[in-house]
Amino acid sequence: MQIFLIEAILLLFLIATTVVIILERDLLAASVVYCGFSFCAMLLYMMMGAADVAFTEAVIGIISTTYFIIAIRTTDRWCK
Q1: How far lies 27's CA from each of 18, 41, 54, 58, 79, in Å?
Q2: pLDDT recorded at residue 59
Q3: pLDDT mean across residues, the chain
Q4: Which of 11, 17, 65, 76 makes the best surface tag, with the fewest CB within 10 Å?
Q5: Dihedral (CA of 68, 70, 72, 74) sign
Q6: H or E stretch including 52?
Q7: How far apart are CA 62 and CA 64, in angstroms?
Q8: What sign does the CA torsion over 35, 36, 39, 41 have?
Q9: What are the Cα distances from residue 70, in Å, to 7, 10, 14, 38, 78?
Q10: Which long-range CB contacts under 8 A does 63-69 form with residues at least 24 apart?
């Protein structure tokens, strides 16, 4: 029962971070929240026993967040 509660909390956190990413006007803040989304997804995959998928999510999450931050630094930070 304890594992299901933790998985449900992680799933609710994923939904909440998705809504924040969609509604956020500051692109840098949205990319930082996306990093948290990726970390939460990685934890969820680890709890389900998919270590290979969790490792891939961690690597892709770090690389894509880095690219997002580099792209945002070269353009305008605020969405119009």
Answers
A1: 14, 21, 25, 21, 7
A2: 94
A3: 89
A4: 76
A5: negative
A6: helix 51-74
A7: 6
A8: negative
A9: 33, 28, 24, 18, 14
A10: 64/34, 64/38, 65/31, 65/32, 65/34, 65/35, 65/38, 68/27, 68/31, 68/34, 69/28, 69/31
Q: What is the dihedral of CA 42, 45, 46, 52, to 10 degrees?
A: -90
pLDDT (tens digit, 9 = 90+) per residue, 7-48? Answer: 999 999 999 999 999 999 888 899 899 999 999 999 999 998
Q: Which residue is associated with the tokens 């353009």?
A: 75
Counted residue by residue, the chain has a size of 80
Q: Report the candidate in 72, 73, 32, 36 with the shortest Cα–Cα distance to residue 57.
A: 36
- Interatomic CA distance for residues 58 and 65, integer angstroms: 11
Beta strands in 5-78 (DSSP E): none
Rounded distance between C-alpha atoms, residue 67 and residue 51, angstroms: 24
| CA–CA separation, 51 and 57 (whole Å) | 10
